[in-house]
Design goal:
The chain is α/β, with parallel strands linked by helices and about 220 residues long. Helix content is about 35%, strand content about 15%. The strands form three sheets. The protein has a five-stranded mixed sheet, with helices on one face. Strands 1-2 form a two-stranded antiparallel ribbon. The longest helix has 19 residues. The chain starts with 19 loop residues before the first strand and ends with a helix.
Length: about 220
């Protein structure tokens, strides 16, 4: 997939940008054409495995993906790390969902998932805005502290690949999209779009995704 200029987020009713990315679970590409004309797709765009929020969201999506499958909707998670790095991680923390690799964020760029400039105001917010997106922390903590606390809780140690991903990706946001059989985007959720920095690490409620999927399937 070629690197294009960053665009505004895709909106419901727009054609989903085509993609072809290396699969993590097998030695072949995975593309939008694999689903077009066959099944609706729930597409989740994550950053690298260095992100404790993403690791938790991927675990949550395992359950959600099974529920979506009962509705006839397939799921694909894009992790922004090299296939070999992802394969090591998911060997020990397997997921039933299909995984693709995109360390250079080409699909985030194509779908317009924002990557904010780290301005002084943003850096200040990281130390002031308090979050507890999964409820695991005893109390909400400033974003930077919350991330460190979850890393410590996991005992996760960066590999050189993780460090390279951080330097290339931070502060990339995440996004989820529901795409119909014809390849048209029908539902979009962009991290921080509704709550600002307080939305970091939050997944949309499962019921919201399932309701959107039912509407898509019954359309």
């Amino acid at each position: 997939m070629t690197i294009a200029a960053w665009r505004a987020p895709v909106e419901p009713g727009e054609p989903a940008p085509a993609f072809a990315l290396p699969a993590v679970d097998r030695d072949e590409p995975v593309s939008l054409d694999d689903y077009r004309g066959r099944t609706p797709l729930f597409l989740a765009l994550m950053v690298g495995l260095w992100c404790p929020f993403c690791r938790r969201q991927i675990a949550q999506l395992g359950t959600l993906g099974a529920q979506l499958k009962t509705l006839g909707v397939e799921s694909l998670i894009v992790v922004a790390t090299a296939p070999e790095n992802a394969r090591v991680y998911f060997k020990f923390r397997p997921t039933p969902l299909r995984l693709a690799s995109d360390p250079d964020l080409t699909i985030h760029r194509a779908y317009g998932v924002p990557k904010p400039e780290p301005t002084p105001a943003m850096l200040q917010a990281l130390d002031q805005v308090r979050i507890n997106p999964t409820g695991e922390l005893p109390q909400p903590l400033p974003i930077s502290e919350a991330a460190r606390a979850l890393q410590a809780m996991d005992g996760y140690v960066y590999t050189p690949a993780d460090q390279a991903d951080v330097e290339r990706q931070w502060p990339q946001q995440k996004g989820q999209f529901l795409i119909d059989r014809a390849g048209i985007v029908r539902w979009v959720e962009i991290e921080c779009a509704k709550e600002g920095m307080a939305g970091i690490g939050k997944m949309p409620p499962a019921q919201v995704v399932l309701d959107a999927a039912r509407a898509l399937v019954n359309h």
